[in-house]
Design a protein that fits this description.
By secondary structure, this protein is of the alpha+beta class. It is 15% helix and 35% strand. It has a single domain, classed as Phosphoribosyl-AMP cyclohydrolase (Ubiquitin-like (UB roll), Roll), CATH 3.10.20.810.
Length: 129
């Protein structure tokens, strides 16, 4: 783990979307929410291939913008996110995957959610769930 993932220094990556525009895939944001608790677990990206895989297999799949490949959540970690449904926003330019995690942690940092810190006085403060 590094300072970005475990530190308290606020270092927002405002260049992420600019970097995504350089990949060859057309992607849209996907908010992933625990269907039972309402907790937001992660935000990722999907292309048509990832959405098709998700709908066909009933598990959350995304397009990895860093590896430029299909990313089926849980294939390596075992933290599979079983699909409840997929919702589409009003402009049809983002998705909401409502899921049921098979285990307790959706984040690669071994936490239930990727949103485990809040901004406090221009720094980050860890929050407990």
């Amino acid at each position: 783990m590094n300072n970005i993932e475990e530190g308290r220094d606020l270092q927002i990556d405002f260049l992420k979307l600019k970097q995504i525009t350089k990949i060859k895939e057309n992607v849209i944001p996907v908010v992933v929410q625990n269907a039972e608790t309402g907790e937001v677990l992660i935000v990722a990206y999907a292309n048509q291939k990832a959405l098709d895989y998700t709908l066909k297999n009933n598990v959350a799949a995304f397009w990895s913008t860093s590896r430029n490949e299909l990313w089926v959540k849980g294939n390596t970690s075992g933290e599979i996110l079983n699909l409840v449904d997929v919702r589409v926003n009003c402009d049809q330019n983002s998705l909401l995957y409502r899921v049921l995690p098979t285990k307790k942690n959706a984040c690669h940092t071994n936490r239930s959610t990727c949103y485990y810190r809040k901004i406090s006085d221009e720094n980050l403060e860890f929050v407990e769930y």
